[in-house]
Amino acid sequence: MADSGPKSRLIHTILIPSLDTIIKNSSWRKHSKLIQESKSALEHINSGNKPISDAYPSTQLQNPEPDLDIVLSPLINACCTENVKIVEPALDCVQKLIAYGYLEGEVDPTGGSSEKLLARLFDSVCKCCELGDEGVELLVLKTVLSGVMSVSVRIHGDSLLQIVRACYDVYLGSKFAVNQTTAKASLVQMLVIVFRRMEADSSTVPVQPIVVAEMMEPTEKGDGDGAVAVFVQGFISKVIHGMDGVLNPGTAVGSNVGGSGVHDGAFETKTSTTESTNPADLLDSTDKDMLDAKYWEISMYKKALEGRKGELADGEGDRDDDADVQIGNKLRRDAFLVFRALCKLSMKTPPKDALADPQLMRGKIVALELLKILLENAGAVFRTSERFLGAIKQYLCLSLLKNSASALVTVFQLSCSIFISLLSRFRAGLKAEIGVFFPMIVLRVLENVAQPNFQQKMIVLRFLERLCVDSQILVDIFVNYDCDVNSSNIFERMVNGLLKTAQGVPPGVATTLLPPQDIAMKQEAMKGLITVLKSMGVWMNRQLCIPDPHSIKKAELADNIPETENGITNEHEPVESPDSHSETSSEVSDASTIEQRRAYKLELQEGISLFKRKPKKGIEFLINVNKVGNSPEQIAEFLKNASGLNKTLIGDYLGEREDLPLKVMHAYVDSFDFHGMEFDEAIRVFLRGFRLPGEAQTIDRIMEKFAERYCKCNPKAFTSADTAYVLAYSVIMLNTDAHNPMVINKMSADDFIRNNRGIDDGKDLPEEYLRSLYERISQNEIKMKDDDFTLQQRQSVNSNIFSSLDSILNIVVRKNFEESQTSDDLMRHMQEQFKEKARKSESVFYPATDVFILTFMIEVSWAPMLAAFSVPLDRSDDEAIISLCLEGFRAAIHVTSAMSMKTRRDAFLTSLAKFTSLHSPADIKQRNIEAIKAIVTIADEDGNYLQDGWEHIITCISRFEHLHLLGKGGPSDATFFAVNQNESEKSKQTKSNILPVLKKKVKHTPAGITSEQVNSLLSKLNLSEQVGEMNRVFVRSQQLNSEAIVDFVKALCKVSMKELKSTSEPRVFCLTKIVEIAHYNMNRIRLVWTSIWNVLSDFFVTIGCSENLSIAIFAMDSLRQLSMKFLEREELANYNFQNEFMKPFVIVMRRSNAVEIRELIIRCISQMVLSRVNNVKSGWKSMFMVFTTAAYDDHKNIVLLAFELIEKIVRDYFPYITETETTTFTDCVNCLIAFTSSRFDNDISLNAIGFLRLCAAKLAKGSLGSSAANKGKNVVENKEKIDDIGDLEDKDGHLYFWFPLLAGLSELSFDPRPEIRKNALEALFDTLRNHGHHFTLPLWEKVFDSVLFPIFDYVRHAIDPSGETPSQHGIDADVDESDHDSWLYETCTLALQLVVDLFVNYYNTVNPLLKKVLTLLVSFIKRPHQSLAGIGIASFVRLMSDAGGLFDDDKWLEVVLSLKEAANATLPDFMLILNQDSLDVSYEDEDLDNFRRDRLYAAVSDVKCRSAVQLLLIQAIIEIYNMYRSQLSTNNTLLLFNAVHQVASHAHKINADVTLRSKLQELSPITQMQDPPLLRLEIESYQTCLTFLQNLESKAGSSQLVDLCQEVLKFYVEVSGPPRSTESTPNRTHWVIPLGSGRKRELATRAPLIVTTLHAICSLEVSSFEKNLSNFFPIFSNLIKCEHGSREVQVALTEILDSSVGPALLRSC
Predict the structure, then answer these.
(1) N or C, fewer C-beta in 10 Å, the chain?
(2) Cβ–Cβ under 8 Å, residues 959 and 1060
(3) Is the separation of the CB atoms in 1050 and 950 below 8 Å?
(4) Is the pTM for the entire model greater than 0.85?
(5) Strands (E), 172-225
(6) How far is 668 from 641, CA to CA, in rounded Å?
């Protein structure tokens, strides 16, 4: 240090006056040596030597200057004089030297000379306390506190413990209250210093003075002025602040001394190296008895905590050898020693007479208080270091074990406080210990309901309230214990214990509680349950980020906050976070894993419970659920190790004779290792796990197997297993004889020896061995492991199947055990229990993070809590109890609602709703009003999570409003909405669910109350004040989130439905509220409103269709009000919300049977249109749907009213219809089409058709509103609405808009009214004709396919050959035949002509559609109906005549192919006639004959029809050919020829069929057909063929003409020749029979064809004729020989012979 003048002067001011005072007050005789030393020191100081402060600049000097001894020796000796006047100045001088930094170095009695000198100094200072003087005690406290606070004087190890002991002795032994308080405050301050430095790893860390007033006990605060607290606070502050001055860098003391660096030199001294000795060497020698065992906790927990790197100066670690412990950091070593010393002090057992005297227990109490303060302010190092956790496990746990059973309330309370600190801050590292102590300290007291210690019980209840301040603790407890298969269900037992305490002592059970105590305890238990619920809610809110209006306020629920408790402010320690306990495990609690663990535990518990009733059933169950293996070895292992099994039942199971239990018993015995054990010790170990059964045979089997196992493990023990077996049996008998109180004459040692003679293969066992065995058995009973605690377990109120850990508690509680067992035995037994716990339990601590874990906690606790809240609320009138119960309900509903646990939430909600008594108003009391308030509060605070729980709340509100209405005396809703008498009779079986009691009241029945009584009730209980709160529930609905508002609306609709369904007393309260909440929530986003309206829409539909007309009208009016409000809001284009909210009108319009409702809907729509037409956008769609429905109504007035409105809309508001969405145009069109079908008035239909014309005109002009330019976009969006449109995209949108209009008019062509049909067709074709020039080809294609062609679908597809006329397309079956014919001949003909004309008019555009038109016409021709075929042929000819000139060759090819198809399809088929059986009538089967006759008539009709059609077709073909012969190409002509030739060939084939003709002759009365049947068709067909070929100029035509002529002439020759005889007789002359008249008529008919054919032959070229003459000549010869029916053939034949054949013959000659 620097040799400065001010410092020298300061030394003179401290030392010289003190030494002078010492010399002055010393006795020359008694203190001569002291006086001499003092004078020497004064001479040394005054001699001008270098300052004292430079004599010992650093503790690094191994040989300090002799000046230090000169100065300190008189001070040390002065402190030892026991003279107050000498001691005081010496102490004051030492304190000042320390405070001002003039003493430096380490205080160590085993160190160098300077360290020993300083140790002697502090030893002498501490001994001054023995003087008992008030001032001396204060100076001692001041001095030692300054020493501990100093950074220059470094006090460690034993010296620090000595100082702590000195303060402790002052607190206990001082006669002055001020000194006691000062000593206690000094101890606390020292703890702060030691542990703060340890945490910071620095001796220079700043430390603030404690707040003494908060540390003092209430008894110490008796001074009204607080003088003691003020004094002690000043004392502490002066010392601390004085030392702060020393730490000030401005002083010389604060400079770096000897280059020791930033940290104190104490951390770098060579003498302070890492110690590797036995841990006892680190402690006071008096504590060695506490360390006779190893650090057992190290072996218990293999997973160590990882320390922070660089945190320690020399590091901290464990060697592989568990016995070697290192604490290299002296600051941590000091903290360890102090902590252990406090634990030992807290375990000191005072004299027996002090147990009831708190004053004599002050030492134990202050030690516990200091431990409590230390733990509550523990930093991160203390909480996570393995060394400190080990100290807690070894020392603090033993202290808790001893003190938790103390009868002194203060000690028990402090034990609880210490335990809660362990639980809140150390639970991650003390999982096994907490699992032991929680049942021992908390559950033992909590579960004792009948005979509890009142004060202890109250302490535990308040402890639980404090426990729940940190919500993470509860969840962690559940996850790590209730879900651990080897741990007690702590959370579940805690909740059940609180429930039983809240319920009180069961009736008939004796109790020590006074009534006031019982009441207070019940309230505290109720508060505990509520706090548990709230804590769960707070944790849930934090995990789900829910704002919680009822978050637990720690300052309100905790008596003292740990961070500021007992006057210690922990400024640098952060508040515990939920994740602060995850340091021991990188794992977190996954909900699925927790669920599996919980389920595993529950199943195991169920199996063990079943085992207790029937062991075999229990084992079978556990095997089935895979909790135990099915092998005997696995079952034996389970029986040996599982907790909670009844030992007697284990023995019973092992003694069973069945195969499996016997194998299990063998495996069980074989699992023991008896190597090296004495025989009796082996029996003790063997019988520790079960009780031997009472049956001798069973014992025999078990002991026989035991003997075998023992001999196998110890082969040299006995000669054979028989010896061991007999001896084992004998030992069992001896044990029973010696320890059974029922046995009077006990067996002696000689008796025992005599009983066992000759058991070793005839020899005797050594007498000394048997006598020793006898003595051990007699003195120490062989018993099961837990026999000592059986009595205590039987007394347990709520024994858990995993509660064997409570056996630790029983060691302490039972007095006889306390007296007989030493402290070492106690600790050893505790260690064994902890080891067993650690072995069985999972050592990893899981911090809970998944909110889903709460569901398991609620499953466990909801039923007890419901019972705890419901029973008192039902029975008590005490306001405090009622308030607590309702608070519990609110907390429970909050948690269950937010966790979506519907069943549990509804259980609480329904119970709370029941307690409102609104269903029974006569019984309403103040508690029921409070329940009503709670219901409203729940709705306000938890509305976002109630889901369908809203129904219960709204039901209560509805009932309350009904009660209020009765009180006001106003008319009930039933006055206006009651069902008529006749309607009510229809629903006699339907009973009202709404307010049955209130219905009685209205009727003034004896069981009810009058309105006057209701008024009195309202005024007495101030119920009127609740009306506003009830209404605010609906107003606040706008604050609900998007999902909750939908749930709210669902519940409101559900309750309203119940109200309205009452036939005797319907109510509309909720219905009116629906309109209100719709108004309040009007501004929600449309996505949410859509969900809301989906609910409301269904509701209004249901109510609108109600049988109660008044209610239905009210509902529709409410819907109108809502719709009017919605229409006030602007809707953008292409949105559909207006349409959605108006759909209920549409559905009700369709479903309602009430005319009044349907008329009301029309008028509601009318009002909307007239008042809100500017705002209607997508709503037009629903409006038109309503009008469309009205158009089909059965009542004329509705149809007229609707059409009147639609007429006004089309005339006046047409631009609005398509203003924003042009798609509504189609809805308007569909509506008008519907009105065209009106059956009441043709004028309506005609006007509707007229409006359709108007719509078409507007569409053609493009006037579809302001957004007509965007029609194309709308079309694309809406194309899917029309199936027929396909993938076509029309850029003008014509297709989408034109199609419905045209299709509607097309459908009217089937209307049964001729006038309507005519007007519709005119309108349709006028529209097409007038506006068709706007159409593109794709649109025309769709028009033809989907509008025009469907008109003819009926006739194209519906008329089958049988003549049946189904009524699927257009004309109904009940339409009479005249109307059918009218449609057929007028409408169909006209329509087909118009189609042809339309095609011709727009041929240039629609010419690609020619094939489709031809297909239509051919389909008519192909129909087996002569009229239809005729219409088709006529139209075909009309098309050809009008458009044939426009056709090119390809188009003519399509025409020719169509004609060919028609010709082929209409060929007559006579096979059905030919195959008909005889028509002889058979009376036995008349029905079959009728069927055959009908089939014949049908076949004949079909043949006639086809014949006629073919004739018409041939005529049409020749007509078309004659018109356009020049345009037909050769190929097309040949195709046409082939088609006609096929007809002709087919006709000739039929005519030449003799069998067929004879059959027809036979059936001539039925067929009435000429013979041959197709003669005319054959002739005309051949004539047409000749015409085609004669006009062809090609060679192919000439060749075919020759063939055709030969064919015709041959046919004629065959017909005119004589009939062929079937029998030919050779050499016999045949007479030629003249032709009959029929044959002659046929020949006459064929004559023109033959003449034409002969003329055609004459017209052949000469070369061709001559070429084919050889073929013709035989035919001519035959013609000459034939008979003819007409001379024209002969004339023609003569001409051809003259003109052609003769010249040809001549030329050939």
Answers:
(1) C
(2) no
(3) yes
(4) no
(5) none
(6) 11
Q: What does the radius of gyration of the chain's CA atoms come to, in whole angstroms?
A: 59
pLDDT of residue 1284: 40
Q: Is residue 820 within 8 Å of 444, Cβ to Cβ? A: no
Q: How far apart are CA 1414 and CA 556, in angstroms?
A: 96
Q: For 1683-1699, what is the mean pLDDT?
A: 80
For 190, the token pair is 């020292």
Active-site residues, by number, are: 695
Residue 1586's closest CA among 1651, 1633, 1493, 1631? 1651
CB-based contact 848:589 (threshold 8 Å):
yes
Q: How many Cβ atoms from other residues are within 10 Å of residue 912's Cβ?
A: 26
835-871: burial string, b at 16+ Cβ within 10 Å, e else? ebbbebbbbebbbbbbbebbbbbbebbbebbbebbbe
Instruction: Answer for the pair 96, 147: CB distance below 8 angstroms, yes or no.
Output: no
| Alpha-carbon span 1218 to 1226, nearest angstrom | 10
Are residues 703 and 725 in contact, defined by beta-carbon separation less than 8 angstroms?
yes
* Longest Cα–Cα distance in the chain: 202
Tell me: the pLDDT tens digits for 484-528? 877 888 888 889 988 888 888 888 777 888 888 888 888 888 888
Q: Looking at this protein, which amino acid is placed at residue 1071? A: L
Number of C-alpha atoms within 13 angstroms, CB side, residue 1367?
Answer: 10
Cβ atoms of 1144 and 1123 within 8 Å: the answer is no
- Tell me the C-alpha distance between 713 and 674, whole Å: 6
Phi, psi dihedral angles at 1376 (to 5 degrees)? -70, 165
The string of DSSP codes covering 1066-1132 is ---HHHHHHHHHHHHTTTS-HHHHHHHHHHHHHHHHHHHT-S-HHHHHHHHHHHHHHHHHHHTS---
Q: Which of 30-39, 1054-1063, 1107-1116 has the lowest average pLDDT?
A: 30-39
pLDDT at 323: 34
What's the CA gap between 493 and 532, in Å, rounded? 13
Tokens of 397: 């746990």
Mean pLDDT over 1167-1177 rounds to 82
Cβ 882 vs Cβ 930: under 8 Å: yes
What's the per-residue H, E or C state across 67-86?
HHHHHHHHHHHHHCCCCHHH
DSSP for 1158-1192, please give it: HHHHHHHHHHHHHHHTTT-STHHHHHHHHHHHHHT
Backbone angles phi, psi at 318, to 5 degrees: -120, 140
Count CA atoms closer than 13 A to 1275's CA, side-chain side: 20
Distance in angstroms (rounded) separating the CA atoms of residues 988 and 1002: 20
CB distance 659 to 692 below 8 Å = no
193-207, 795-809, 1484-1498: lowest mean pLDDT where?
Answer: 795-809
Q: How many of the other CB atoms lie within 10 Å of CB of 709?
A: 22
Average pLDDT over residues 3-24: 69
Burial class of residue 1424 in the structure, from the number of CB atoms within 10 Å of its CB (0-12 exposed, 13-18 middle, 19+ buried):
buried
C-alpha–C-alpha distance, residues 329 and 272, integer Å:
9
pLDDT score, position 1140: 80
Residue 1469, pLDDT above cutoff 60: yes
Beta bridge partners of 318: 325
| Backbone phi, psi, residue 546, to 5° | -100, 125
pLDDT tens, residue by residue, 64-107: 344 777 878 888 888 888 788 888 888 888 888 888 888 888 88
What is the rounded CA–CA span in Å between residue 583 and residue 998?
A: 62
pLDDT: is 1594 or 1429 the higher one?
A: 1429
With a CB cutoff of 8 Å and minimum separation 6, the contacts of 309 are: none
1361 token code pair? 């050959």
Q: How confident is the model at residue 256 (pLDDT cuts 50, 70, 90)?
A: very low
